[in-house]
């Protein structure tokens, strides 16, 4: 019975969320050019803004996720409208049409770090990782200074365009010190939203710094090949799982910084502190 309900529910959700097609006109102003991505709560399109002739990114709240998706989208709109930085999407418009809600923001051209690492096979050594993390941190520091935390600092949300680093997807961002928005619906929906919104705790700068620890590891793992070579040379020897400290050959300084980011000992409390520590490594 539960299975039948779940099948019918997924079918109805897919039908309600059917994305708008190429050429469709949204809000009598934005022509859909392509779908950029479909997340759990939103569908994002690249559109042409007829009034300016510019490309824009338009995010639609998933109809099947009801009021909660609309609230999240509205929260994202409020936050990006408070952030005015050339390397962060600018707020352009928020509108409702035929019962659907849309957020319009500037389109950020570039390749995500995820594409660069996994699609184009680019490798980042320790020095490059530190320099890129510093670029990201200067943006994160700006966001924190405005009173917000991003809470989704991951390689798919960081773009590169001509050497410039851009930060997108403020869908989980929150005002510092606030609790996450939770749906009023079922216990399970609340639980999954709580998990999604970074442990469901009150938002603080340290949550972003923790994500930066993982961000650095993703970049550093781009150079990691030892395990594959070992497997080729000794295919019958069972491969034992190792920690990142064992797998990556890192300098003591970088290792300590990542440990401080990911573990509870000697944590960094603010982005400034981390910037100082990384700059000391690079410039001394
Ligand atoms: N302002 C923007 N400029 C260019 N591309 C964007 C912009 N905003 C989002 N995108 C792209 O659209 C896609 C989906 O966007 P986004 O990550 O914001 O959606 P989401 O619903 O939050 O998805 P997820 O749940 O996977 O995080 C991503 O591929 C992202 O690169």
Automatic annotation (TrEMBL):
Keywords per UniProt: ATP-binding, Kinase, Nucleotide-binding, Transferase
Key word ATP-binding present: yes
Domain of life (superkingdom): Bacteria
Residue ranges of every copy of the Protein kinase domain listed in the record: 30-284
InterPro entries: Atg1-like, Kinase-like_dom_sf, Prot_kinase_dom, Protein_kinase_ATP_BS
Binding site for ATP: 59
Pfam families: Pkinase (PF00069)
Keyword Secreted tagged: no
Leader sequence segment: none
GO molecular function: kinase activity
Protein name: Protein kinase
Organism: Paenibacillus gallinarum
């Amino acid at each position: 019975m539960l299975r039948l309900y779940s099948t019918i529910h997924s079918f109805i959700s897919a039908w309600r969320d059917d994305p708008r097609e190429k050429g469709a006109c949204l809000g009598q102003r934005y022509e859909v050019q392509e779908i950029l991505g479909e997340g759990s709560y939103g569908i994002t399109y690249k559109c042409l803004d007829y009034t300016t002739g510019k490309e824009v990114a338009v995010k639609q709240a998933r109809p099947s996720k009801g009021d909660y998706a609309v609230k999240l989208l509205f929260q994202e709109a409020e936050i990006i409208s408070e952030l005015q930085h050339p390397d962060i999407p600018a707020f352009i418009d928020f509108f409702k049409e035929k019962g659907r809600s849309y957020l319009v923001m500037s389109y950020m051209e570039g390749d995500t770090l995820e594409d660069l690492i996994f699609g184009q096979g680019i490798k980042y050594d320790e020095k490059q990782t530190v320099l890129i993390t510093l670029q990201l941190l200067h943006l994160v520091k700006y966001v924190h200074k405005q009173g917000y935390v991003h809470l989704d600092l991951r390689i798919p949300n960081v773009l590169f365009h001509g050497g410039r680093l851009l930060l997108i997807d403020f869908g989980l961002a929150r005002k510092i010190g606030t609790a996450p928005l939770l749906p009023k619906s079922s216990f399970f929906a609340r639980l999954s939203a709580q998990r999604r919104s970074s442990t469901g705790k009150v938002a603080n700068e340290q949550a972003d710094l923790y994500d930066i620890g993982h961000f650095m590891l993703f970049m550093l793992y781009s150079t990691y090949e030892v395990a594959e070579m070992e497997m080729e040379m000794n295919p019958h020897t069972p491969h034992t799982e190792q920690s990142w400290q064992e797998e990556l050959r890192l300098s003591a300084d970088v290792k300590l910084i990542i440990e401080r980011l990911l573990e509870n000992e000697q944590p960094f409390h603010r982005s400034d502190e981390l910037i100082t520590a990384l700059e000391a490594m690079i410039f001394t």
